[in-house]
Amino acid sequence: MKTSGTVRAVAVLVIAAIALLSIAAVAVAGRNQGVAAQAATATPAAEEAVSSDAFLSINPQAGFPLDPFLVSLQGGGPVDASTVSDQCTGFVAEAPAVTVDYQGEADLLRAFFLSNGDTTLVVQTPDGDFLCNDDTHPLLLDPSIVVTAPVQGVYSVWVGSVAAQDLIPGFLVFTTKDTVTAGNLALADLVRRQPLPATQPLRQRQIDAGQRLAEALAAVEDAAALEAGGDDVTVDVTADGILPMPELLTNDALCSGLVSLAPSYAFDWSGETETLSLFVEADGDTTLLVRTPQGDLLCSDDASADTLNPLVAIAQPAEGRYLVWVGRITPDEPVSGILTITETAGAQPAALQP
User: Residues 6 or more apart from 168 whose CB is under 8 A from it?
Assistant: First the structure.
């Protein structure tokens, strides 16, 4: 009984093995036929990508301000790129890394991939043609493809790796500028600024902020004398500083804007009133920071959801010296406006629309 069972088990295994070999042969034959068809047209993933919504939109006639345009992604995948064209090399993902809806007109559209590895590039044009590249030149492993007088439509782009299943991080770059190439584009040139120090511990930042406030207070040589019951005060101010407002904060207030170390205005307050309001009406987005005689720091970005002008209202203001900073949001250009100090209840700045 045991011997017969063993014979039957071996027979079953032999039949199963023959069946598996037959299925594998059919699968290989089918794959070879599929490769021939793909080389003549496109892969199913490519055809689907062309008909799908574009992930990026490039229109040189509309300005295309982000030129060169960078996309951070990983190149590579399991699919042999030669299955779409004999000219393509490397291994790519089944779906395109990016699809680009190209509109307008330009002399050229260049795509290249910057990385620390050896990558390849495959581009399918709106006409269905495949363009491929491995290395820009023998000394530059980054791939580049240039489309001269590009037609409008959707371009599908695959980023491949020379080794199968090797994922290589990098930046896919699109440009219509003849002078921008894989050989001369330096990422450090795209954002030019001085190196910034590492974030300081909160305690040290508060100490530094206290020192700056002390310097600002000592630098005030002439403060206006304001008394309760007087007329409203208006002062022309210009926000042109570059010091982030948090660098003046010794508390945990959420203040924004760029200011100068020296206050925009200083005044000595005397008398009693219910509320003292300070606001700015400017030709651009401003912020406001007020230091009270007790050392409290009060700030405002927008007085309300309907205006970009800031407002600080102080209930029962204490007598003593007040420092006022008017800040700007961006460093592009100075912002001019008028600082108003008033005892009028419910005072609000004129609306500056977002």
Answer: 74, 75, 76, 115, 116, 117, 118, 119, 159, 161
| Sequence-ordered list of residues with C-beta below 8 angstroms from that of 291, at least 6 positions apart, any chain | 213, 217, 297, 322, 323, 324
Task: Please give the biggest Cα pair distance in the chain.
Answer: 117
96 φ/ψ angles, rounded to the nearest 5 degrees = -60, 150
CA angle 129-132-138, nearest 5°?
Answer: 155
CA distance 23 to 209: 75
Rounded Cα distance, 247 and 258, in Å: 10
DSSP code for 343: -
d(CA 294, CA 308): 28
Contact 108, 176 (CB under 8 A): yes
pLDDT of residue 199: 62
DSSP 107-172: SEEEEEEEESS-EEEEEE-TTS-EEEES-SBTTB-S-EEEEESPPSEEEEEEEEESSTT--EEEEE
Domains and CATH numbers, the chain: 44-187 (2.60.120.380), 202-342 (2.60.120.380)
Q: Give the β-pairing of 79-80 and 243-244.
A: unpaired
Return the H-helix or E-strand segment holding 30: helix 2-40
Residue ranges, the chain, pLDDT below 50: 1-54
